[in-house]
Each structure stands twice: as structure tokens, then as C-alpha cells.
Amino acid sequence: MKGTQIILLLVLAIYSVSSQRCRPGWEQYGQSCYSFGDETVTWIDAMQYCQLDEAHLVHINEPKEYEFLVNSMKGRRITVAWTGGSERLHRGSWEWLPNGGLFGKYEKWFGTEPAGPDEDCLAIDQGHSYQWMDMSCTLSYRYICEMKIPDETE
Ligand SMILES: [Ca+2]
Ligand SMILES: [Ca+2]
């Protein structure tokens, strides 16, 4: 009986350690940690703030991740949030900066977006059903940083 209790405690301890792999203030979803910036800043500043935290502006790779982000925005009453999506480097081809690769596998643009000739940065916008909008990178919004959790088998 005692042995069983010890094993149970061990299992619980390991579980609680492995289930909290994000820094305080960061939220885990899947294999990433996310933080939701409190300030409203330009896209460039948002990118730099994420990098100062050894993270990057969020790369949205699949529908479940997008749903998590929208729910988190709703919970925090964030109306517009910058993501790492941009066509700043190559006009006409959207990619996840930095080093996240081209769009293609999964996209959630609103209506006929992206359509703005001077709108090179991607935001999630409550006013457009939280779908993706290309916006002017110089506008100031909240922002979402993402940090991949290192693969423990490596
Ligand atoms: Ca991601
Ligand atoms: Ca637009």
C-alpha cells in the first residue's frame, strides 16, 4: 500500500513538472508557449519585443492553434493582435517571419483579404470575426509572441 502511494506521488510530481513548461505569464498550447503583450505597438516593435523574450511573433500553423489564439484574445479582451505574418520581404508572398516559411498549409483570411497595397502585416481582428487582416505595419496593436518548447528527445 505504501509503495503504491509513493509511486502515485511520483507520477503526480512528474506530471505537474512536465505540464508547466512555460515561464510565468506564458500560456502553453501544444508544443509552444505564448504571451500576449499588454502594450499596443507597431508590428516592428512587436517583433523586437518578442525577440527580447527569446520568442517570435506568433506563427499560426493549424486551425487548432488559431482557435486557441482567438479564445485567448476573447478571454483577455484583446480586439486586434499582431502575428508574425508579413509580406514585407517579398511583396505578394506572405510568410511567417522570421524563418517560419511561406503561407499555404493553413490560412484564415477575412473575405477578399489580403487586399491593401500598403498593408504588409497580418493581424487578427475582432471586428472581422477574428479572421486575418492585412494591415499597415505602422499601426499600433497588441501582439502575440510564441516560443517553441524544446523537444526533450533531442
Ligand atoms: Ca505556431
Ligand atoms: Ca487589409
TrEMBL record:
Transmembrane segments: none annotated. Residues 29-146 form the C-type lectin domain. Keywords: Disulfide bond, Signal. InterPro entries: C-type_lectin-like, C-type_lectin-like/link_sf, C-type_lectin/snaclec_domain, C-type_lectin_CS, CTDL_fold. Residues 1-19 form the signal peptide. Pfam families: Lectin_C. PANTHER family: MANNOSE, PHOSPHOLIPASE, LECTIN RECEPTOR RELATED. This is C-type lectin domain-containing protein. It comes from Candidula unifasciata. The lineage of its organism: Eukaryota, Metazoa, Spiralia, Lophotrochozoa, Mollusca.
